[in-house]
């Protein structure tokens, strides 16, 4: 499978710049991967395709306001810092991306906020764009985090061409987000409302929660034609015994297991027993799922409509079939579905 297999022409006007008025009222394309049949529905009707004791698996990671804007010492040059992950809370060390990277050297100090509310020192050049910063702050750790996050912006993806606002603080987060650590939201989960989760519960459809903290890999473009040569950055995952019990019971009783998003798909496929069941795990994964790939755990998947050449598109086609899903994208364009983070959704059922 080659990178060029994931090219398609996406009209810019179809890239959603804002979320739907109500989370569960996005459009939903439903694809039967066995027959190739396509239906057009509204997302809140998704439960029509699930029965009692089926399972939805959600990623309960929580996004933090990861984008900071500051100034370089002496020159005052404007610097954008994207927080990736905390390395050491006592020393206040963070892995970050810096832009423009060429202007930043080890030893440089960066200033953030009015009256230099936060100061950071560059202590390491980890990659061509990445850096390690040590924040210099005399107060408590809690006060430091509060200051850091008050200065941060919601890290909207670059194809949303506007400044983040107060609405994004809520809508660029799933309603079940719990464990902080992501720099991008698991977008498929944005369609679930409290009302929809309550209807799931009443119908007897079960929920299982896993965690994958979406990191730098979500922003890296694939720059090799042969996908097997692409390296994915490791991301932290957590799969509990409780989640395994819920998923494995559904597997053993031939019920549906629906992965809500590509991050859930990668998490589930990263920790499998020899019998094809899910096992508890806490650690890191760099699983890259692209066709051809035999998916083991889920037999249904919800995902958004992704950008050309993106790894998320590759994972979706690995589940639904490359030709079928790429054809479905052409249908979505013709029917004017909304693409991207705040766009519409696709349900694939095997």
Automatic annotation (TrEMBL):
This is S-adenosylmethionine:tRNA ribosyltransferase-isomerase. The gene is queA. Pfam families: Queuosine_synth (PF02547). The lineage of its organism: Bacteria, Pseudomonadati, Bacteroidota, Bacteroidia, Bacteroidales. It comes from Balneicella halophila. Its EC number is 2.4.99.17. Its main location: cytoplasm. Transfers and isomerizes the ribose moiety from AdoMet to the 7-aminomethyl group of 7-deazaguanine (preQ1-tRNA) to give epoxyqueuosine (oQ-tRNA). SUPFAM superfamilies: QueA-like. It is found in: Cytoplasm. Monomer.
């Amino acid at each position: 499978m080659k990178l060029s297999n994931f090219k398609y022409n996406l009209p810019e006007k179809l890239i959603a710049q804002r979320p739907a008025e109500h989370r569960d009222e996005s459009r939903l394309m439903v694809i039967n991967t066995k027959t190739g049949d396509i239906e057009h529905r509204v997302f809140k009707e998704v439960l029509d395709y699930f029965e009692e004791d089926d399972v939805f698996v959600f990623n309960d990671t929580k996004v933090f306001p990861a984008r900071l804007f500051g100034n370089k010492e002496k020159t005052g040059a404007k610097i954008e810092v994207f927080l990736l992950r905390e390395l050491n809370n006592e020393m206040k060390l963070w892995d970050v991306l810096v832009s423009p990277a060429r202007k930043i050297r080890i030893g440089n100090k960066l200033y953030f906020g009015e009256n230099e509310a936060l100061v950071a020192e560059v202590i390491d050049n980890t990659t061509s764009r990445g850096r390690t910063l040590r924040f210099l702050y005399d107060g408590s750790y809690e006060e430091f985090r509060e200051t850091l996050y008050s200065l941060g912006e919601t890290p909207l993806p670059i194809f949303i061409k506007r400044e983040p606002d107060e609405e994004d603080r809520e809508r660029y987060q799933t309603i079940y987000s719990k464990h902080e650590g992501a720099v991008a939201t698991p977008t498929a989960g944005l369609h679930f409302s409290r009302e929809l989760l309550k209807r799931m519960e009443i119908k007897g459809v079960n929920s299982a929660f896993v965690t994958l903290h979406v990191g730098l890999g979500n922003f890296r473009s694939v720059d090799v034609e042969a996908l097997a040569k692409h390296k994915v950055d490791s991301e932290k995952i957590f799969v509990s015994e409780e989640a395994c019990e819920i998923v494995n019971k559904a597997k053993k009783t031939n019920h549906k297991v629906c992965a809500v998003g590509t991050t859930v798909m990668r998490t589930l496929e990263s920790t499998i027993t020899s019998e094809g069941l899910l096992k508890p795990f806490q650690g890191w994964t760099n699983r890259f799922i692209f066709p051809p790939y035999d998916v083991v755990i889920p037999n249904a998947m919800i995902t958004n409509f992704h950008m050309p050449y993106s790894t998320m598109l590759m994972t979706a086609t690995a589940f639904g079939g490359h030709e079928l899903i790429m054809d479905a994208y052409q249908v979505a364009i013709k029917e004017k579905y909304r693409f991207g983070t705040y766009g519409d959704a696709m349900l694939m059922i095997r």
